[in-house]
Amino acid sequence: MERCGTVAGLFVRFMKLGCFTFGGGLSIVAQMHRLFVEEEKRISSEELLDITGVARSLPGAFVGNVAFLYGYREAGIPGGVASLLGMVIPPLLLLAVITHFHSAFKNSRMVTAAMTGIRAAVVPIIAVGALNLTRGAFPRPLCFVLAGAAFLLYFVFNVSCVWIVILGAAAGIAIGVCSEKSGGGARGAD
Q1: Taken in order 34, 37, 40, 42, is the CA torsion positive or negative?
Q2: Is 186 left (phi over 0), alpha (psi -120 to 50) or beta?
Q3: Which pTM was predicted?
Q4: Which of 59, 57, 56 has its CA nearest to residue 29?
Q5: Which letter, b or e, does each residue of 73-107 get, where b requires 16 or more Cβ atoms within 10 Å of its Cβ?
Q6: Tens digit of pLDDT per residue, the chain (190 long)?
Q7: Which of 8, 80, 130, 133: disulfide with 71, CB 3.0–4.6 Å?
């Protein structure tokens, strides 16, 4: 089997992800977690979470950003480009075919039923992806309190996501500084 860190290996791996992963960003991140974190142990949950965090904050498509950042991590700019192309070529080709035959597909009960089934099947895949990312997001108990506060700020008080991210970053820095001062290290106890 090809080594994932090679440019060609990255292209092939991300082409497979692009062909067989339905449901968008978190679904693909769930598949990346299964493949790169659990099976191959090429990256930790924390590193994948960092990549997804940066990818969300950049302009452009989340999936493309994640693919490029992971590929860049493995093999520099050529790896990032190969991963991005591998990720986007399959759905782009499928979209071109569907668009070409749109009038035949749009009123088909069979296609509508298939899409309903795909949507239902994707929900647990996305949920597993989100749950897997929590492993890296909560290295200490205080992080659960911060997540709860972020939910409240967003859902109850309608605070902008930008402010929530800024406040989260500030709280993370404060926790890290306090932890180092108390001798707990970067991942020490609260």
Answers
A1: positive
A2: alpha
A3: 0.65
A4: 56
A5: bbbeeebbbbbbbbbbebbeeeeeeeeeeeeeeee
A6: 344 558 999 999 999 998 877 667 778 888 899 999 999 999 998 899 899 989 988 888 889 999 999 999 999 999 999 999 999 999 899 888 878 877 777 778 887 888 788 888 878 877 877 777 776 677 788 888 998 999 999 999 999 988 998 998 899 888 888 888 887 554 444 4
A7: 80
The number of C-alpha atoms within 13 Å of 148 and in the hemisphere containing its C-beta is 5
Query: Which of 51, 58, 63, 50 lies closest to 17, judged by CA?
Result: 63
Chain-centre distance for alpha carbon 131: 12
Burial of 12 by CB count in 10 Å (0-12 exposed, 13-18 middle, 19+ buried)? middle
Residue 106 vs residues 13, 94, 113, 185: alpha-carbon distances, Å:
32, 15, 12, 58
Q: What is the token pair recorded at 100? A: 């070409």
**Residue length, the chain?**
190
The interaxial angle of helices 141-151 and 161-181, nearest 10 deg, is 160
C-alpha radius of gyration, the chain, whole number: 19
Q: Which two tokens stand for residue 46?
A: 């924390």
